[in-house]
Structure formats: C-alpha cells, structure tokens
Amino acid sequence: MKRIGRGIGLSFYGTGYGNGFPDVSRAKVRLLKDGNVGIYVGGTEVGQGARTIFYQIGSETLKLSSDNISFITEDTSLMPDSGTAAASRQTYNTGNAIKIACENFMDRLREVAKRELKLNSTQGLKVNNGKIYLEFFPRKVISFKELAQKQKGNVIEAEGEFVAQTVEMDSETGQGAPYWPYTFNACGVELEVDVLTGKVEILKTRFAQDVGRAINPHLIEGQMDGGFAMALGYVLFEDLNINEGRIKNQKFSKYLIPTAMDMIDLENVIVEDPESTAPFGAKGVGEPVMIPIAPAILNAIYDAVGVRITELPATPEKLIEAIEDSKEGRVVKHG
Amino acid sequence: MIEIQLTVNGKDYTVNIEEDKRLLDVLREDLGFTGVKEGCSEGECGACTVIMDGKTVNSCMVMGFQANGSNIVTIEGLEKDGQLHPIQQAFIDIGAVQCGYCTPGMILSAKALLDKNPNPTKEEIREGISGNLCRCTGYSKIVKAVEKARGYEDES
Ligand code: FES
Ligand code: FES
Where do the domains of chain B lie, and which CATH numbers do they carry? Predict the structure, then answer.
C-alpha cells in the first residue's frame, strides 16, 4: 500500500567564515601588453562556476567584453590570496574584491589617460569598451591598446581588497551578528511511501532560493539541482556505517548516492532581492541549497505515514520498523 | 607481456602490455587517452565508460587482452574536424557540466543510447545514463542536454 505525503522545509544560512573571523579576498588587475586586461585572483574553480562569475563581475565593472579579459587564477606565485572556495563565499567575497580592484584600476587608467591626453584633471573621463575618453569632448580619447604600447615597462595595475563584516558572538549569551549576509530558502516536497517495502519515491518538488541578484541563473539552477540531489542521498540512502572507527560502506556498491533514476524534474524558483553590500547584489548559494531538503522530505514522510525519523538516512528498514512500532502504539525513538 | 591490436577512435594501434593491465590503463597510459577517467575502479561509477564494439563498458572492468581486436570510442573520438559532437555541444549549451569528472562517461553513455534509440523519452534517458554517477549536477541539466541532442544526424 502506498501513502502520499507533503512536507516543507525552510532555512536561512550565513555565508562566509563568520563569527568575527578574518575573511579577506584580494584581487589584482593589470593592463597587459596587448591592451587586454588581466585579472589575477586566487579564487578556485571547482565546477561551481566561480570563474564564470568572476568574468561577469570583471566585465560588467570594467565595461569591457570578456573576450578582452584574461583571468589568471590558481597559481599562488602570480596572484594575491582570495581565501578558500568554501563557505559559499566566492561570489560575494571575492566578487567584491574583483569589483573593487577593477574600480581602482579604472582610477589608475584615468590618471594615466589625463597625462597622455594632456588634460587638467581626470574629471569627466569615462572608461568604456576598451577606451578612455572625455565624455563631453569624445575626440579626446585613448584606447587601452595605445596606453599599453606607450607605457614601455611601466605597468598599469591596481589591487582590491574586500574584508567581510561580521561580529563575534557573545560567548556568555550566544547573542550577536555572526554572519553577513544571510540567504534564505524554502522547499516543498510531495512523496509516496510504500508501507510494505519502506521505499520512498519523490513525486514533486518546489524549491525557492534567495540569491540576492541572479547574475547567472543557469549556474544557480545547477547549484539548486545538485544541492537537492546531494540532500536526497543524505536523507534516504547515504550511510558511511562507521564501526569502531572504520568506514564499512567504503564503496559505491554499499554507499549509495542518487542516480539519474532517483531524481525527478525539479521546480526551481529563484528569488531576487539584491543585497546592498554584495557585488551587483549577488550572494553565494553553494551550501544553502542543500539545507531545507532533509526537513522537507522527513516532514512529508511524517505526513504520509505518521512517523518521525530522527536519525539519517531514513532507509526502508528504518521506516518499516518505525511504521510497525507506531501500529503497536509503542513510543520509540527511531535512530 | 602480450601484444594486442585495437582500433581507438578510428585509428589502429598495436601495443605490448602486461597480462594484468586493465583497458582503462592501456587507454590512459599507453595510448594517452586521458579523457577516460578513473573514479571507483570497481564498475560502479561509470567515469571510465568507453564504447567498445558499439556497447558501453566500464573500462576499469575490462582487461587489456580482452580488448584485443576490438573497436573503441573514447571522448577524444567524438569531435570531428574541430567540430564538437552534437551531444558535446548540447552539454555546453545547457550547462550540464560542473566539475566535469563524470562528463566524458556521461556523453559516451548518451551517445550509445542515442545511436540505438534516436528519440528516447525522458525516462529512457534517465535509465540510459543511470550507470554514470554525478555528484554535482543532480542530473537535471544532463537529461536536458541529452533531450536537446536527441535526433541528431550522425554522419559517421
Ligand atoms: S572507474 Fe570504472 S566504473 Fe568507476
Ligand atoms: S559534473 Fe561533477 S560529477 Fe558530474
């Protein structure tokens, strides 16, 4: 017999290192010999899309096509540190550092252009599309390429640093502002529990994630899909089975993770509410996308069969045992 | 040592290998096809998938000598004259690649499926790639990419 249930889960999550811990990202921007712009940054791409986001933020700030930007990353001899690709912090923290570095770089360009164009001041100088020109007299113009050629050995570059603002919690009272910014999400799940086999099948989901501003909706969807799948495995199948310090399920034939057959089409909703301290309003979503899924699924199981599972994973065996116990009116903690 | 002959991506090779060498290692170490990835080494993850005589196999589970006389396609063999294969292009267009470790195996499983069944349903696609594990994407965009590539004309 199959029973259908529905559940929701909500969460909020502070990104970055938090709790007053120093959280610093740095970037360096340099005019290259060929007139293109090099952005040197220690942020690491691991498939989450950091590099794409960095290109977007750099390109938008410099008003320059990404074809004319080279990202030089992941070589500590060439670039300043941007902290770890962890804590969902690269978009917000390193994105901010890149934006600041690009703005400083544009100031440097205006100063050099003032000299080259024999102007009195940098007032009214605009940087756009690889050129620096006087807005109200556009014949006064010099391109990045010409500037690069004229510099002969003098490098035009600027650095940027972003230090996140967080406050250590009061250890006595537990009060404080340990993170900034926070991100919010909500997930609803409809599922079916087979009361004979204990098998759970997800039928429908709706998952909403606050992102500040979606500077790359494709990548956000990818994070939401991946977060859901990882959480699904965490709730229903994944069990290291540690016994006296040894991992017993040390292979994929025993440690089961979801396959394409376990997943369904997800209904993802991206919620935009730009964050004032973020680069173009964008916050990180790497970790938060996993958090509301487990409570949503467990609440739906409760709705379907009336049992609370308090230890993960909610395997078929555990579920059947819990259902049997509830029939007999025993109050047992299932874990 | 034994000598085996095999065709990889349309080219013939003769290699001398140790008797206990796996096809995975022959392809990666002797022939340089590093697009073949090693994940679990026990036939569970599909990262090492190649197409052998028209069927997908886990190359970690095939001995080198068993591949003697066979015709193998790896991810390197899909591009033609600098043009990506339609499935590869669809993976890029849809954004079906995150860390990329599962991608070569995924694309080859998708190719084997579409070669047999050019217009699979969504469920058939999910089944066709179910031997390939992906930890990053939740499979959604991978399934969409295969749907997009569905019905391509393979001139080969
Ligand atoms: S490495 Fe061959 S199946 Fe995992
Ligand atoms: S993209 Fe990372 S495992 Fe599939």
Answer: 2-76 (3.10.20.30), 86-149 (1.10.150.120)
Nearest to A317 by CA among A198, A195, A192: A198
Mutation choice for B interface testing from A44, A230, A261 by most B CBs within 10 A: A261
The pTM of this model reads: 0.95
A114 and A206 inside one domain: no
Q: What is the pLDDT of residues B71-80, one digit of tens each?
A: 999 999 999 9
Give the burial string for A30-69 (b: 16+ CB within 10 Å, else e). Answer: bbbeeebbbbbbbbbbebbbbbbbbbbbbbebbebeeebb
Amino acid at B125: I
Provide the token pair at B110. Answer: 């998708």
* Residue A331 binned pLDDT confidence (cut-offs 50, 70, 90): low
As a whole number, mean pLDDT of residues A97-117 equals 98
On whether both A58 and A143 belong to a single domain, the answer is: yes
Q: Is the complex ipTM more than 0.90?
A: yes
What is the CATH classification number for the domain harbouring A68?
Answer: 3.30.365.10
Q: Could you tell me if residue A173 is inside a domain?
A: no
A334 located within any domain: no
Alpha carbons A92 and A232: distance in angstroms, whole number: 27
3-state helix, strand, coil split of chain A in percent (to 5) is 30, 25, 45
Summarize pLDDT for A68-79 with one digit per residue, the tens.
999 999 899 999
Q: How many domains does chain A have?
A: 2
Query: pLDDT value at position B151?
Result: 81
Task: Please tell me whether residues A149 and A225 are part of one structural domain.
Answer: no
Q: Which residue has the tokens 């498939």?
A: A47
Shortest alpha-carbon distance between residue B148 and chain A (Å): 15
What's the whole-number mean pLDDT along residues A296-317?
97
Chain-chain contact of A261 with B40 (C-beta, under 8 angstroms):
no
Asked whether residue A202 falls in the same domain as residue A154, the answer is: no
Among the three residues A133, A163, A193, which one is the final residue of a domain in this structure?
A163
Q: Side chain identity at A91, as an amino acid letter?
A: T
For A123, the domain range is: 24-163
Chain B positions touching A47 (Cβ under 8 A) are 97-100, 136
pLDDT higher than threshold 50 for residue B156? no
